[in-house]
Structures are given as structure tokens and as C-alpha cells.
Amino acid sequence: MDIPPDVRSSGVLLLLYPKGDVLYTILMQRVEDGKTHSGQMSLPGGKTEPEDADIIDTALREAWEEVGVVRDEVTVLGKLSPLFIPVSNFMVNPVVAYSETIPVFRADAGEVAGILEVPIEELFRDSIKSNIQVRPSSSPNLTMDAPAYLVYGKVIWGATAMILSELEVIWNQIQ
Question: Residue 168 needs a FRET pair 20 to 30 A away by CA distance; which of 2, 17, 118, 161 works?
Fold first, then answer.
């Protein structure tokens, strides 16, 4: 697939943190606003702004704005593979970070309909993985099959599912 020259850059934060002996991550449900990714489950993140020093800065800024992750309370571990999303013309750059403590999350009501905390191991169970029929909000006349995670009554698909899939591959290699 050719990446258009006017592709926009974005950063998302895949945050890992312990609750007892269990490692968790956070997902959020975007508000229903009629935009391209309206109502979808995602990682906190968004488009790069001119004041961002780099993609890590973008991911940390967006995580603060959307769900209250304090940048000084996390350690950036690295980045996953960039992912082009044709429907929104974004190159998404996943940043992985770790917090030694459970963050105090707060959802920005203008962007976030809900926050979902999920144990990492839960995301890697085969029983929650499926192929589903989706109708993207940006193309209501289009229906397509998509790999998805079905977690706690929520459907995680698209770029977020691809990012989680890459995390699982890496996780399995280090275990």
C-alpha cells in the first residue's frame, strides 16, 4: 500500500502497570461524535502537534489530555511498528510505557466515553479473539470482516487490535 505524501502523524500510548502481581493496560472508548473513529475502542492518543518534540511527546501529551496519565510517572520502554490507517490518513506510532504504580485515570468528557482496564494476559487468550463484521462509522454502507478482541463486552478491532497483536508477539518472545 502506498503511503500518501500528506499522511498525518499520530502517537498512541500503550501503558503497562501492575495491580498486585498482574500487569494491566488501559483502553478507552472514544465518544460518539460522528468522526472517523467515533465510538471505537482505542489506546489513548492522537495527532502530532507542532509543539511536540517527537512522537513520544505526542503519545504522552495525548494520554495526559485524554485519560490523565502523568508523563513524569511513566518510563518509556520503546515503540512498536508504525501503522498506516487509510480511512483517517494517519500514521499511528505506538509508544509503550510502564508505570510502577496504578495511575489515577480521568476521562476527558469531550473525547472519552469510558476507560477500560484490562490484564495483559486477558488480551492474549485465544477465546477472546474473533473475526467480526464491522461497519465503520466513516463508511456506513460498507461492511467488512475484521479480526477483533471481544473483551468485557467491548469490541477492539482495527489499528488497536493490530497493535495489541504485535504486543502479544513480543510478549511471547520474552516469556
Answer: 2
Burial (Cβ within 10 Å: 0-12, 13-18, ≥19) of residue 61 = buried
DSSP states along 59-93: HHHHHHHHH---GGG-EEEEE---EEETTTTEEEE
pLDDT at 34: 66
Question: Which residues touch 169 (CB under 8 Å, ≥6 apart)?
Answer: none
Per-residue confidence band for 95, with pLDDT thresholds at 50, 70 and 90: very high
Cut 0.85: pTM above it: yes
C-alpha cell at 107: 476521562
Are residues 157 and 148 in contact, defined by beta-carbon separation less than 8 angstroms?
yes
Answer for the pair 77, 171: CB distance below 8 angstroms, yes or no: no
> Which residues, listed in sequence order, are joined to residue 155 by a DSSP beta bridge?
150
pLDDT of residue 36: 63
Q: Look up residue 16 and give its three cell numbers.
A: 503497562
Helix (H, G, I), strand (E, B) or coil at 80: coil
| pLDDT at res. 138 | 60
Q: What is the DSSP letter of 3?
A: P
